[in-house]
Design brief:
It is a single chain. It is built from nine helices and six strands. Helix content is 44%, strand content 21%. A four-stranded antiparallel beta sheet has the order 3-4-2-5, with helices on one face. A two-stranded antiparallel ribbon has the order 1-6. The longest helix has 13 residues. A hairpin with a 6-residue loop joins strand 3 and strand 4. It is an alpha+beta fold.
Length: 205
C-alpha cells in the first residue's frame, strides 16, 4: 500500500512525468533529497513507470479497432498469440460469448483491416466482431488531440525513442545520446513537449 505522500507523488508523475524533484518536493512538503529517494523507490519497485507517449498521428496509429474474438480451445493461449501482434495495444480475457477482446491500432483503415485479418488467421480464432473507433473520448496513455504541422528530424526521433523508454532520462544522458549540448537538448525536449508531439506520464502498476 502507498502512504499519502507516495500517492501524491504518483499522481504528480502521472500529470507531469518530468517534474523536477524540487517541484515534487514543494508539492508534498518534504525535502528534495527525501522526495528523490521516494521517487527512486517507486520506480525501482515498478509501482510506477515514467514513459513518453508519442502522439498517435506521429507514430502512425490513427486507425483504431476494438475486436471481440470468439475462440475454440484454450482462450489464454489464443489471447497470448493475439497479444504478440505488434499492432495490438491490449488484450483481455473476458466472460461471455467473446472470450477475448483486443484493441488494434494501425496507420490507416487498410493497415487496420490487414492486422485484423492476421488475428483471424490465429489458430483457434473462430469469429471476430470489429468495432471501428470514430473518435477517442478518453485515452489515458495516448495523445489524440489535434496536432499542427511539425517537422521532425532524426535527432528528434532519437529523443522520442529515449523518452519512450525512460521519460525521466536526465538531460545529461539525453545530450550524450544525441551528441548535442545539454542546453540544445533541453530546448528540443521542451519543443517536443510543448508542441504536443510527446507527453511524459507515469503508468501505475
Amino acid at each position: 500500500m502507498l502512504d499519502a505522500v507516495d500517492a501524491v507523488l504518483v499522481r504528480e508523475l502521472q500529470r507531469d512525468g518530468r517534474a523536477t524533484f524540487q517541484a515534487l518536493a514543494d508539492r508534498v512538503g518534504l525535502s528534495r533529497t527525501a522526495v528523490r529517494a521516494r521517487v527512486q523507490n517507486l520506480l525501482e519497485r515498478k509501482i510506477v513507470r515514467v514513459v513518453g507517449v508519442v502522439h498517435s498521428s506521429v507514430v502512425g496509429t490513427g486507425a483504431i479497432g476494438h475486436v471481440a474474438v470468439t475462440v475454440e480451445g484454450a482462450a489464454r493461449h489464443i489471447a497470448e498469440r493475439v497479444a504478440a501482434r505488434p499492432a495490438v495495444r491490449f488484450t483481455s480475457l473476458t466472460a461471455g460469448s467473446h472470450a477475448v477482446v483486443t484493441e488494434v491500432r494501425a496507420r490507416d483503415d487498410a493497415a487496420l483491416s490487414a492486422e485484423i485479418d492476421e488475428i483471424r488467421r490465429v489458430s483457434g480464432v473462430r469469429a471476430t466482431e470489429v468495432f471501428r473507433a470514430t473518435s477517442v473520448v478518453k485515452d489515458a496513455y495516448s495523445i489524440v488531440d489535434e496536432l499542427g504541422d511539425l517537422a521532425l528530424d532524426e535527432i528528434d526521433w532519437r529523443l522520442l525513442r529515449e523518452l519512450q523508454r525512460d521519460g525521466r532520462a536526465p538531460y545529461t544522458r539525453l545530450a550524450r545520446t544525441i551528441e548535442l549540448s545539454q542546453a540544445a537538448t533541453r530546448a528540443r525536449v521542451v519543443r517536443l513537449l510543448s508542441s504536443g508531439v510527446i507527453r511524459v506520464t507515469g503508468i501505475v502498476d
